[in-house]
Design goal:
By secondary structure, this protein is mainly α. Helix content is 65%, strand content 6%. The chain has a two-stranded antiparallel sheet with strand order 1-2. Helix 3 packs parallel to helix 5.
Length: 145
């Protein structure tokens, strides 16, 4: 009987260590999800500010959100409000920072329409019926004006 008790304690000890190890792994995951939930809540406030608040006010509120996955949408909301006065260099900087993203595509299309409204074709190139911005790095070798 003594052997059974010893084996039972050894098994119990292993399970206790396993439970302790697993609980240690769940704490950082929980802390990470709490941080993400806090960023998500803060993002919604900052996004509303970027869309409707005073110009540039969202930047102060966005501190700590730079690594949030939707951060590009904050910049996009601000740029969409300033589209009539947006300079090609500002658009280029955004497109370079967020290549191949939905916010970049959204700004690209809106800025093309804005350039057409301004009757400024110097920043646009056309190839095979597709319009794009000259200010992007991904220019084809030849283009038609």
């Amino acid at each position: 009987m003594s052997a059974r008790i010893t084996t039972g304690f050894a098994r119990l000890r292993r399970y206790a260590w396993l439970a302790l190890a697993l609980s240690g792994f769940s704490v950082p995951a929980s802390a990470g999800s709490d941080a993400l939930a806090q960023q998500r809540a803060k993002f919604m406030l900052v996004w509303e500010t970027a869309q409707h608040g005073p110009e540039g006010a969202w930047r102060k509120l966005a501190e700590g959100l730079e690594d949030y996955p939707l951060y590009a949408y904050l910049q996009l909301a601000d740029m969409q409000r300033q589209l009539a006065h947006l300079q090609p260099d500002e658009a280029r900087k955004f497109l370079d920072a967020w290549p191949d993203s939905l916010p970049a595509q959204t700004l690209r299309e809106a800025f093309l329409f804005e350039l057409a409204r301004r009757k400024d074709c110097s920043q646009v190139y056309i190839r095979k019926g597709e319009f794009s911005l000259r200010l992007e790095k991904k220019q084809p070798a030849s283009y038609v004006q």
